[in-house]
Amino acid sequence: MHGAAPETPSRLMIGRPELALIGITLLWGGTFLIVHQAMRHSGPLFFVGLRFGTAALIALPLALPVLRGVTRREWLAGTMIGCGIFTGYTLQTWGLRTIPSSTSAFITAAYVPLVPILQWIVLRRRPRLASWIGVALAFAGLLLIAAPRDGLSLGRGEALTLISTLAIALEIIFISLWAGRVDVARVTFIQLAVTSLLAFACMVPAGEAVPPINWIVMLSACGLGLMTALIQLVMNWAQRSVSATRATLIYAGEPVWAGLIGWIAGDRLPASALLGGALVVAAVIVSEIRFGKP
C-alpha cells in the first residue's frame, strides 16, 4: 500500500512472500481438475464470469474501506490486469472442455519462459541466454504433449490453452509493472470485477446461453472464486518484493501439483506426454538460471 515502509531484505533464500506464493501454487494446481469437471455442465464464459464475480464479492469487504480513494493509475492497472486474466482464463477454461486437466496444466506452464520474451517486447528488457534455452525446452515439451493424439500438431483444446499462456504471461508482467505503486486491495477488486464483467458481456456475441442451475457448477465456481480471490491478493502482495522472474520460478510447481492431482483422479497420460511435461517444467527452471556473475 501507499506509504508502507519497505521491508527489510531477508538473507534467507525463501522469505514469507515466497512461502505465500508456494502455498497459492499448490491451490492453483488443484483448480484444473475442478474446472475440467465443471465444463461438463457449463460454458466457459459463464463459468469464468461466475468464478471471478464471486472472487470480486469476496474481495470487496477488503477494498470497500479504501475504495473511495481509487486513482486513475489503479483503474488502469486493474483494467489491464483484468483483461489479461479474462483472456487467459477464458481460453484455458475453453480448452479444458476437451483435454485432461494434467495436459492443460503442463501446457499452461509454458507461460513462464514467455515472460522474459514479453518483457523484452513490452519493457525493453533483453532476455538472457537461459531464457532462450527455456523457450526451446518448452517448445519441445509442447510437441511431445500434443504428439500422442495429433502427431506434430496441437488439437483445438491444446491450441486454445497455448494461446492462453500469452495472456497469463502478460498478467504476470502487468502485476509486476504496477506492484508497489498501487493499493493492493483496490486493484485486486478492480481486476476481478473487470474479468467477471468481460466474461458475462461476451456471452451474447459468443452465443453462449446461461446453463440450467447445477450445483456442481455453482459450488465449483464459488469455491474457485474464494481460491481466486486469495490467489490474486497474495500475488499482488508478494510480487511487491518478489521479482516477476523469481515468482515464475516458484510457479513452476503448479503443473507438478496439477499433474499429481490429475493422476489421483484417474488421468493417465502417455509416457511421451509425461516427458513433454517434464521438459516444460525444466524450461521453467532453466529459464531462471543465471550463468556467470549476477
Automatic annotation (TrEMBL):
The topology of this chain with respect to the membrane is: Multi-pass membrane protein
Q: Record's superkingdom?
A: Bacteria
Q: Which Pfam families match?
A: EamA
Keywords for the protein's UniProt record, in alphabetical order:
Cell membrane, Membrane, Transmembrane, Transmembrane helix
Q: Which SUPFAM superfamilies match?
A: Multidrug resistance efflux transporter EmrE
User: Domain EamA, which positions?
Assistant: 19-146, 157-286
According to its UniProt record, where is this protein located?
Cell membrane
Can you tell me where the transmembrane regions are?
A: 19-39, 45-67, 74-91, 103-122, 129-147, 159-180, 187-207, 213-235, 247-265, 271-291
Q: Name one GO cellular component term.
A: plasma membrane
**What PANTHER family has UniProt attached to this entry?**
EAMA DOMAIN-CONTAINING PROTEIN (PTHR42920:SF5), OS03G0707200 PROTEIN-RELATED (PTHR42920)
Q: What is this protein called?
A: DMT family transporter
